[in-house]
């Protein structure tokens, strides 16, 4: 995917539009305490997309849905109508989201054990943290830039499933990591995206087992703990991107996913801790062996048990099924009349295939409407009567 070709016209420095985006980024840096990767190059973004942060450090922003919608609220002396106020609040929130996204260090996903950039779990965690920032600081950023009253953070999360899961995990993993909710959030935000899950695992291992673990064992133990996090966060993709699922139901799926993710994570951690502490008690000063096969079998059994629990709850298939070719995900079901739900699930399965199949991942992740992972489609909120449990 050629991102240069996706850019619209450049928005030059010195224009109102460029100055406003620069101000939003500067304020976001101030509140987050982290520098932005934005290099000052700004381009127009076409289509129903708020904007993008591109790998070269440039950004795109929608003129129609962000810049034009925000401008009346930031024009001195202009009296806002109710519709203008609502539109400006939404536009500001989208700009703050993009500004916060530009502050996330990407990292190197070619390193063994790294989380691939734009993998399902990376998309979930990054969007949740940027969404949390925009809801927390959006009002204060707007207040610092205009005298107009804008309710930037008054609405619910843009990503209900991702946000519910991430927020809940920040609480439930407190015991395992020894960090409070905000401290764990800071650890995530200040760690490159490719190493965030490893950082959580390392923190838990250091807090619970300390120096009892030989460094040569750590990579495998990280995988034993990051596995539940990858499945719990990445598995929410179909739920989050569904246009037929009510936001309240998405929130519930995210919360429940966090509950079972925490169970698998902390139980695995408990088995690891018991192994190394028992060996140290019986053989003080001797280097311990790696986890025995019996413990690893428990990890596998635990993973399968949780998958069965989700299946019993009716959670839609979250990953492509082994043995099925890509063509399977490129056709609609051929049985009976197709419902809107059938069509949506087929479309989402195609999306999952493109993100999880070998050699199928592209340079820029897009959802079923063609948007990248780090943006929110304009008008994506669903009416309550569209919800399907």
UniProtKB/TrEMBL annotation:
Compositionally biased region (Polar residues): 356-367
Annotated region described as Disordered, given as residue ranges: 356-389
Name the record gives this protein: Uncharacterized protein
Organismal lineage: Bacteria, Bacillati, Actinomycetota, Actinomycetes, Propionibacteriales
């Amino acid at each position: 995917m050629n991102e240069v070709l996706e850019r619209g016209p450049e928005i030059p420095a010195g224009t109102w539009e460029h100055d406003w985006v620069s101000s939003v980024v500067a304020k976001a840096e101030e509140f987050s305490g982290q520098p932005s990767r934005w290099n000052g190059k700004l381009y127009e973004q076409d289509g129903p997309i708020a904007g993008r942060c591109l790998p070269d450090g440039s950004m795109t922003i929608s003129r129609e849905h962000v810049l034009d919608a925000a401008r009346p609220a930031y024009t001195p002396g202009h009296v806002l109508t109710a519709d203008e106020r609502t539109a400006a609040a939404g536009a500001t929130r989208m700009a703050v989201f993009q500004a916060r996204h530009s502050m996330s260090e990407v990292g190197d996903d070619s390193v063994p054990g790294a989380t691939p950039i734009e993998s399902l779990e990376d998309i979930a965690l990054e969007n949740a943290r940027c969404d949390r920032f925009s809801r927390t600081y959006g009002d204060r950023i707007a207040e610092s830039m205009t005298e107009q009253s804008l309710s930037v953070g008054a609405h619910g999360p843009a990503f209900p499933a991702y946000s519910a899961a991430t927020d809940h995990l920040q609480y439930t993993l407190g015991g395992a990591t020894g960090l409070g909710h905000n401290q764990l959030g800071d650890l995530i935000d200040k760690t490159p995206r490719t190493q965030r899950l490893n950082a959580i695992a390392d923190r838990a291992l250091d807090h619970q087992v300390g120096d009892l673990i030989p460094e040569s064992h750590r990579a495998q133990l990280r995988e034993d703990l990051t596995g539940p996090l990858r499945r719990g966060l990445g598995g929410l993709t179909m739920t989050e991107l569904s246009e037929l699922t009510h936001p309240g139901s998405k929130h519930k799926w995210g919360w429940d996913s966090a509950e079972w993710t925490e169970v698998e994570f902390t139980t695995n951690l408990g088995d690891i801790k018991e192994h190394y502490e028992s060996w140290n008690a019986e053989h003080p000063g001797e280097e311990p062996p790696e986890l025995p096969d019996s413990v690893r079998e428990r990890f596998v059994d635990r993973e399968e048990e949780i998958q069965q629990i989700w299946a019993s709850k009716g959670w839609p298939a979250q990953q492509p099924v082994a043995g099925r070719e890509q063509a399977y995900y490129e056709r609609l079901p051929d049985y009976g009349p197709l419902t809107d739900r059938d069509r949506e699930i087929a479309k989402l399965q195609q999306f999952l295939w493109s993100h999880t199949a070998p050699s199928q991942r592209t340079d820029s992740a897009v959802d079923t409407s063609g948007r990248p992972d780090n943006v929110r489609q304009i008008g994506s909120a669903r009416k309550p009567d569209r919800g399907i449990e």
